[in-house]
Amino acid sequence: MNTALKIVLGCWLGLVICAALLFPVVPAPQSWNEFPVIPGLGEKARILFFHVPMSWVTVVAFLTSMVFSIRYLRSKETADDLKAVASAGLGLLFCVLATITGSVWAKFNWGSFWNWDPRETSIIVLLLIYGAYFALRSAIPSDEKRAALSAVYAVIAGVTVPFFIFIVPRIIGSLHPEPIVNAEGKVHMNGSMLAVFLCSLAGFTMLFVWMLNIKIRVLRLAHHHSKEGD
Amino acid sequence: MYEFLADHALYTVLLIVLICWAGIFFYLWRLDRKVARLEKDLRQ
């Protein structure tokens, strides 16, 4: 990623945060910079601009990890294994952040940090699945065996991601507000809210791409260094 | 603190934004340490 793009990304995310926090919530929005009142949520609806992108990046990262794992199984290139593990690590980070931000919000909206809501349960299961991925990797000393076994595991784990994130909330009743993932399959937001939300999704996705790029470079360096040492 | 945050939803959202960035910062800090260790090993 070149320097200009990094500066644009920084400004982009700064503007998203400003818009998400400063645009007023009014009962009948008249202007492009006003959000509507969502019944029962009010100002708390602003979490949408941060918590949902965390979950979105989690999905993108885990699916990216699955794609690189499939590539590894076909090519047996160490570079693909490194990309898969870098992406899974970032997915785990964003999954933890989605869990923490959601549970802080739940404390002030539903009265307790944890309610065993279907989506909360889904995300915990995902955390356990990908926690086990790293436990598996650390338990195998041989490089090739570790890469092959964890690639197979990542493919199976990746298949479960859309199920836990998109399907479970649609088939089981949830405490979660449902402006995006709902039984009707429609987005319940006005234009300005949707624009800020999509900008936030795009910004955090680009941030993920940048972080993934850095992580892959570091892992590649570490790998070459360890090979030189052998 | 809890009552203040419960009464001012905007600050709850601000806390959530801070948690997101603190998490990302922590990750980058760990990555930076890893790079520093690698650089040190490569110099030796």
Describe this structure in words.
The complex is a heterodimer of chains A (230) and B (44). Chain A has helices at residues 3-22, 48-75, 78-109, 118-139, 143-171, 191-229; strands at 25-26, 35-36. With 230 residues, chain A is mainly alpha-helical. A two-stranded parallel ribbon of chain A has the order 1-2. The longest helix of chain A is centred in the last third of the chain and has 39 residues, at 191-229. Chain A is globular, with a radius of gyration of 20 Å. Chain A starts with a helix and ends with a helix. The model of chain A has no long low-confidence stretch (mean pLDDT 89). Chain B is 93% helix and 0% strand. Chain B has helices spanning 2-7, 9-43. The radius of gyration of chain B is 18 Å and the shape is rod-shaped. Classes of the chains: A mainly alpha (230), B mainly alpha (44).
C-alpha geometry of chain B: rod-shaped
What is the CA-atom radius of gyration of chain B, in angstroms? 18 Å
Major beta sheet of chain B, specifics?
A: none
- Average pLDDT of chain B, rounded to a whole number, is 88
The fraction of residues in strands of chain A falls at under 5%
Describe this protein with a few key phrases.
heterodimer; A: 230 residues; mainly alpha; two-stranded parallel ribbon; 6 helices; 2 strands; 74% helix; B: 44 residues; 2 helices
Layout of helices and strands:
The complex is a heterodimer of chains A (230) and B (44).
Chain A: H1 3-22, E1 25-26, E2 35-36, H2 48-75, H3 78-109, H4 118-139, H5 143-171, H6 191-229
Parallel strand pairs in A: 1-2
Helix pairs in contact in A: 1-6, 2-3, 2-5, 2-6, 3-4, 3-5, 3-6, 4-5
Chain B: H1 2-7, H2 9-43
Short description:
The complex is a heterodimer of chains A (230) and B (44). By secondary structure, chain A is mostly helical.
